[in-house]
User: Fold these one by one.
Assistant:
Number 1:
Amino acid sequence: MKKLNLPLFSILMLLLCCLPIQAIMAGNVPLKEDNPNQPLGCPNTSKAPVRIALDVAINETDITLNFLYPVGAAQVTVENENGEVVYQEAVDTFTTLDAFIDTQSLDGGVYTLKINYGSTNLVGEFEL
């Protein structure tokens, strides 16, 4: 029987214990396809499900957008409860797959996150 490499095993166990703590500290912003012609609560049965190419997480200081693969130029917009644009940025996903939105300057309330790339329009809400 082989001996376990104690330093390697210790590092692996430490990583496995720390990963759940990081997941607890951050929250996700659920995204859905933005389709203004579709009634609320009614699933769109005429189209195949949309594969969302990014993961959005929020923590105390910012929102992190992690694109899973390059999708070209993506327009990122944050609107407040009144529909006013409080943040807007174009992200070139061929250059970087990560984008960060600083939320420290935003007041408390419910905000809408809109992400547009190609023919895909995604929308999600988050609260500060």
Number 2:
Amino acid sequence: MPPPAYILNLLRPNGQKQTGRKVWSIDLETVWLPFFTATNTDGLTIIPNEVLGAPLRLGYEADGSVKFNARTGKPVIKVVKDLSDEIRLVRENFVAGLQQFATSVASKQKEAYGEQARLNVEAGQPIRDRDHEALQRAMAEQIERAIAERRPEAAHVPIPEPEGEPVPA
């Protein structure tokens, strides 16, 4: 049985690059607003026009004053809760669809799926080992630097390498 068309479409490059405000890592202006305008048009949702017309709102403190980001000093801009809730629902359903597809393939093609998973783990092992060794070296170097900064006379004391098998990442 061929995979559903929506799964095939997810795996094809479309050449479009997103550039605006992101909500759940997806562009608000070019994806979410047109999508929800279409769902309203089709009668699938009833998102108020002012929500889609002004999806970004200035944040306010409890006392009614404009809220500013303490770190950057910029005003806080939020996505309207009604729209954010709809986006969350779509995202949760999207995730559920991906999980359902994976479960379906894994149950219908147990041996092939298991073999693919085994090949993935096997192919990733050298990368995990390399990263583990690099991390161990970097941590040892940081320890050496910290010791050298605290006691200059101890700067040349070697740090023993960890023993045993690498811990998988």
Number 3:
Amino acid sequence: MRADISFLVWFLIVVVIVYFRLLRPVRLRASRLWTGPAILIVLTLLLALGSYEANVSIPVIAAAVIAGAVLGFPFGLLRGRHTRVRTTDNPRVLIVEPSFIPLAIWFAAFAARFAIRFFLPHAGPTALAASDALLAFAVGSVIGARYVIAQKFRELQAT
């Protein structure tokens, strides 16, 4: 029961972050471009460490998280290429247009993670680590998108 409540709390935190940072136009400074992804990385690592309590070894969790992030990065690059970025009066501030895709990726990752953990409670350590890889996939996609947005930021500043 404690795990279900913990999952719900983390899910709500991520939904709030994704909603306020990714589903509405956001004014971003270059210095704050990586704040949202850094928060999501910390949250993902905290959730992954919860797997450690479920008798999944740290190397297995680490491998799953790294694999998920590496696989999610190219999707983020693709999404970032389709994200509109506008300039403002301040040359160090950009407006990043919203996208529904991040919310869909996060929802799918959390839903799949929940399904694995709820419907397969006696799944082995590999299945539990794979559920952490799903969250890392979502984080990797956000990092990839921010990387492309940072490139657009540099290009717009140069003009």
Number 4:
Amino acid sequence: MTKLAFKFVLPITILCFATMTKWWFALPTDASGTYFIGFPFPYACNGWHTSMSIQFFILELLVDFLVYYLFWFLVIYLVQKIFKPLVIGRIFSFVLIGLSIIVLGLAAFIMSNKDNLFYFKRPFEMGIFETGYKFMWQKDKQVNAEYYQFKKRN
């Protein structure tokens, strides 16, 4: 199972983590409306000090990745126990590992921006007003931020 975990579960986890997520429209304390991403916890949002920066929250990011990994590990484990053992071909394994390395490289490139901010834990409170699920290539749903800012004040 450990061989399967490294050759199949980890690459599937990385690919799913990079493509499927949840968006959160929230009003952080003393800031304007912001979109956060992450499931089950928001782990990233746009930076407020410059337009090309991203704020990352490391603890939430690690917990989210662990949740994805445990989900896929349990799915593969149960499939192996209930049905029959999975046999992963070399070519399929090579493609999965190659795609996950490319995704990790792109993530490292995005995170290496000198304007990005990294926090161990999110340093502010936020009020969540809308949420939804999306694939990374989809646009965020447009939310009327002024409405929620008015609602927050009252």
